Amino acid sequence: MPVRSAQDIMKLQCLTLKNYRSYEELEFHPGEHLNVLVGQNAAGKTNLLESIHYLAAGRSHRTHRDSDMVRWGENGFSISASIRAGSVRHTIDCVYEHSRGKSFRLNGVPQKRLSDVIGTLNAVVFSPDDLYLIKGGPDGRRALMDGEIGQINRRYRRALSRYGRVLSQRNDALKRIASARSSRATAELMSAPWEEQLADIGGIIVAVRLAMLQRWSEWARKVYETVVGSDEELTIHYRCSFAKAEQVSNERTADMAKWARDHLLRALEETRAQEIERGHTLVGPQRDDLRVYINGRDARHYASQGQQRSAILALRMAEVEWMREETGRRPLLLLDDVMSELDAGRASRLSAGVSDGGQTFITCTDLSEVGLGDVGTIWGVRDGEVSRSVER
Ligand SMILES: Nc1ncnc2c1ncn2[C@@H]1O[C@H](COP(=O)(O)OP(=O)(O)OP(=O)(O)O)[C@@H](O)[C@H]1O
Ligand SMILES: [Mg+2]
């Protein structure tokens, strides 16, 4: 991976937690480059990474419920961070209270919409639970695409929320049509306006995803080769619910959006009768998926456990490269328990891969398993405290 200058790197300079999971109070000033967080099981390592990622994504990578992160017996938590993106500095403060939910301030100014906060800090997290990205259902993979693109693309975030609203309006219309036993002509009249809108917004969503996947797949292939050291080929493919996306994946985003719009509109018309029967919309980006292939074979069915883990690591590191390409800044890389998943050769190639001048956080239970030589700052994590460790 290329070594970067200070201008194109995002850095977390200070993180403050209050009543966040196992942390009653924490002020953490991480090192500029590699930070190794060492501690026994249940010491609070994952909690720390989760809190950093929370500020980037606006949600936890482990749970959908913000209340889970409140230290037991308390009424709320807070996370604050000062960050540097190139030469620009920002502060983000998040406060959650059981009674009022969460609120954010950006550089001290309260923010009405979460979507205005997301994107200030960019971070990619690798977690041992990530196997769901290959083995699990499509929801998780869609959430991955939406979360990652959403972190850096405000237009996409807005498109997603508008699409969600229009989709539920059309689904309501479909149910009304079914219960009124409307004629075919009336059904068309009631449903068509929503279909136009779904196709317009859905076309943009699919096109942005396709463009992202193209680059992401390209980087994943490279990382799989260099970090994982595999001569197999890793690729990612978009599975569109209403057309064959391979046909357009090399086109410009605007052309892909038009292509997706036209196909989606036609598919909505064609499936309308079936959708009225079922009471919901059966085609569109909310039904799309992606697939990971190793040497042209679906990793979900044919890859070994080790291959799947390595593929996921490559996907995550490829996300870092993709995000850097898009934003001009290398995001934070949060690697939770990654070393225990890799053999010695892969671990040492990974160490070389993360020494690219960007800021990385790696957790482990035993320093010897990391094999990072003299690079980085070592932190001891214990009972909700993080301290600079002299031991190597
Ligand atoms: N809301 C909460 N309030 C208080 N403690 C919590 C809360 N949620 C989780 N914990 C505790 O935080 C502790 C540390 O969890 P964490 O997942 O960060 O450990 P870890 O250091 O990553 O361990 P491992 O090496 O096993 O992955 C656990 O003992 C857990 O019970
Ligand atoms: Mg952990």
In short:
By secondary structure, this protein is α/β, with parallel strands linked by helices. The chain contains nine helices and 15 strands.
Look at the structure and give the CATH class of the domain at 1-122 and 333-392: Alpha Beta
Low-confidence stretches: none
| Tally of helical segments | 9
As a whole number of angstroms, the C-alpha radius of gyration is 22 Å
Question: How many beta-strand elements?
Answer: 15
Secondary structure category: alpha/beta
- Following the backbone from N to C, one meets helices and strands in this order, namely EEEHEEEEEHHHHEHEEHHEHEEE
Bound molecules: adenosine-5'-triphosphate, magnesium ion
What is the residue-mean pLDDT, rounded to a whole number?
A: 90
Strand content: 15-25%
For the largest beta-sheet, the strand count, sense and barrel status come to: 6 strands, antiparallel
Strand line-up in the sheet with most strands: 2-1-4-5-6-7
Characterize the overall form.
Answer: globular
Distance between the termini: 26 Å
CATH topology tier name of the domain at 1-122 and 333-392:
Rossmann fold
